[in-house]
Amino acid sequence: MKELVVWLIHFPTGTVAILAAIAALYYPKGSSKHKKAGQVFTIAMLIMLISGGIAGALKGSSDDVFLAALVFYTVFTAWLTVRHRQPVIGILEYLALAYIVIFGLAALSIDPEWDKVREPGVYTFDAIMALIFAVGDIRNILLKGMNQAHRLARHIWRISFSLVWAALSFVDKIIKMLDSTIDQMPYVIVIPVILVLCIMFYWLFRVYKGRAILLSLQPLIGHSKKAKQ
Questions:
Q1: Could you give the angle at which helices 148-177 and 32-58 cross, rounded to 10 degrees?
Q2: If DSSP codes are grouped into helix, strand and coil, which group holds residue 60?
Q3: For the whole model, what pTM was predicted?
Q4: Rounded to whole angstroms, how far apart are CA atoms 49 and 67?
Q5: Helix (H, G, I), strand (E, B) or coil at 202
Q6: Quick one: which of 73, 42, 59 has its CA closest to 6?
Q7: How far apart are CA 60 and CA 117, in angstroms?
Q8: Longest dimension (CA), the chain
Q9: Residue (of 147, 166, 150) closest to 75 by Cα position
Q10: Residue 94 CB contacts under 8 Å (≥ 6 apart), including other chains
C-alpha cells in the first residue's frame, strides 16, 4: 500500500511541483504565468506532502510524518503571504500560527526512545524551525501585515525551504530507481540543495537591494513633490 501511495501519488505530484517551480522561476515575477505556475506548485506540493505523510504513517516512520507536516505549513504560509496584493490578516493567519505552535509542542513531546523514531535529532530541528516560523507569524499578525519587501522575503524563504525538501524527495526516488544509495551518489543530493539556496539568496538580495534603493530615493521624491507644490 505504501509503495502505491509513493509511486502513484507522491512521486508524480512531486515531479509536477519541481517543474512548476522551474516555470515560476522562468516567468517574470508578478506576471500571470508566474502566478499560475505558483498555484500549480502549491497544489502539487500540498498533495505530495499529504501523500508523503500517509506513506510515512504506513511504514511506521514518525520522522517522515513530522517532516511532511512541517513542509505542508511552509508551502501553505508561503502562498498565504502573497495571496492578496495588500497585507491581510484573517482567520487563516491565526490558524497557521496555531498549527505551527501545536506542531512544535508535538515535536518536543516525542520520546527519542520510541520505536517509530529513527533520527531523534530530527525533532529538535522541527521544534527549532517551529519556533522561528511562529515568531515570524506573530510578528506578521502584530504588524497587521508586513510591507512589500518583507512579504516577498517571507514568501521567498518559505518557498525555498519547501523546495529544498521537494528536491530531496525527488532525487531520493531517482536514486532508488537507479538501484543505488545516497552514499554512492552524494552529489545528487548536494547539487539541488546548493542550487535552491543560491536562488533563494539571489532573490532575497534583489528584494532587499531594491527596497534599500527605494528608501534612499524617498527624500528626493518627497523634495521633488514639495517643489512642484
A1: 50
A2: coil
A3: 0.84
A4: 9
A5: helix
A6: 59
A7: 9
A8: 74
A9: 166
A10: 141
At 222 the three-state DSSP class reads helix
pLDDT band at 98 (very low <50, low <70, confident <90, very high): very high
Are 116 and 62 in contact by the 8 Å Cβ rule? The answer is: yes
User: Do 66 and 82 meet the contact criterion of CB atoms below 8 Å apart?
Assistant: no
Q: Which residues contact 88 (CB under 8 A, 6 or more apart)?
A: 145
Cα torsion 163, 199, 20, 38: sign: positive
Residue for cell digits 516567468?
Answer: 27
DSSP codes joined into one string, 93-115: HHHHHHHHHHHHHHHHH--TT-T
Residue 67 and residue 165 in contact, taking contact as beta carbons nearer than 8 Å: yes
Task: Please give the grid coordinates belonging to residue 171.
Answer: 532525487
3-class SS of residue 201: helix
What cell numbers appear for 87 in the block?
A: 497585507
b/e per residue, 121-144, with b = 16+ CB within 10 A? ebbeebbebbeebbebbeebeeee
- Kindly report the length of the chain: 229
Grid cell at residue 117: 523514531
- Of the candidates 166, 148, 192, which has an alpha carbon nearest to the alpha carbon of residue 40? 166
Tens of pLDDT, residues 36-93? 999 999 999 999 999 999 998 998 888 889 999 999 999 999 999 988 777 789 999 9
Map grid coordinates 528536491 to a residue. Answer: 167
> Phi, psi (5° rounding) for residue 89?
-115, 115
The residue to which cell 522561528 is assigned: 132
